[in-house]
Write a structure and sequence with these properties.
The protein is an alpha/beta fold and 263 residues long. Helices cover 36% and strands 17% of the residues. Strand 7 (223-226) and strand 8 (229-231) form a beta hairpin. The longest helix is centred in the first third of the chain and has 27 residues, at 2-28.
């Protein structure tokens, strides 16, 4: 009898969480009002002392990029995102799991969601729609930047960037990319080669000749210069949000309609 009650309670909790998650994800992509994004600077786990300042001009540039791209798809909001520099976190974030283990991914997700819940609870500001955590790394030979990641269910994005002034504009691309992951946008590049996948990972898939491309699709990640070569975009002026990504985040309802609007 007690076992049945426990099972029933567990099923109720799971149903409650699932419904809440569905309603949240539906709300943030209905675009009835701007999405508030709290941005925190977080230390790297290598304990390197670097400048981890979140500059207002960086956030304004990302806002402006999203605004111009949304306008191309006819989105009614004048300002779809509002970015706010929320402060600096004192301790390193949980690292992404190095394996593809399901349980490791779940554990990382729970730790991240707990950290963000504590941030929201301790803040005097209203609870944001999305939390973006920006980890600045010193650029050193032989030290790759840790993989960025995002949680759609928790609406949490983690962007690992280079703490160099020359990298600031490229860092903005990384931050914008991870924010869209929280809204359901998928990667459009080959994880082995990092090459954009044709056609949805290309900014101009109908271009003739196809290569070289001049811009990157945000979720494609790079500018395809040839079938086997691609470059990291230097800044957001070299990036667009393609029709497939616009469909995934709710800026349009059909892929064909998105393509026509974006022409």
């Amino acid at each position: 009898m007690f076992r049945r009650i426990r099972v029933a309670l567990l099923l109720y909790v799971l149903l409650f969480v699932a419904v809440g998650t569905y309603l949240t994800q539906t709300r943030v992509t209905d675009w009835n009002e701007p999405l508030w994004v709290n941005v925190y600077a977080a230390p790297a786990d290598d304990a390197t002392a670097v400048d981890s300042t979140i500059a207002a001009e960086d956030l304004a540039a990302i806002e402006g990029f999203f605004t111009s791209q949304a306008r191309a798809y006819g989105l009614g909001l004048a300002r779809p995102f509002r970015f706010h520099a929320a402060g600096i976190i004192d301790t390193p974030l949980p690292s992404l799991p190095v394996t593809s283990s399901f349980f490791a991914a779940i554990a990382w997700s729970l730790r991240m969601r707990w950290r963000v819940a504590m941030l929201n609870w301790s803040s005097d500001a209203p609870t944001p729609d999305i939390v973006l955590l920006v980890v600045h790394h010193e650029l050193r030979d032989g030290l790759p930047v840790e993989r960025s990641g995002a949680l759609r269910k928790g609406l949490i994005a983690v962007a690992h960037v280079i703490a160099e002034h020359a990298a600031r504009e490229a860092n903005r691309v990384v931050m914008a990319h991870e924010v869209l992951h929280t809204l359901g946008a998928t990667d459009k590049y080959d994880p082995v080669t990092n090459m954009p996948i044709f056609p949805f990972g290309y900014a101009e898939p109908d271009r003739a000749p196809l290569h070289p491309q001049d811009k990157a699709e945000l979720m494609g990640g790079r500018v395809p210069r040839s079938p086997r070569e691609a470059e990291i975009p230097r800044d957001l002026s070299q990036v667009v949000i393609g029709p497939a990504t616009a469909l995934e985040i709710g800026w349009t309802t059909t892929l064909q309609g998105a393509a026509r609007q974006h022409e």
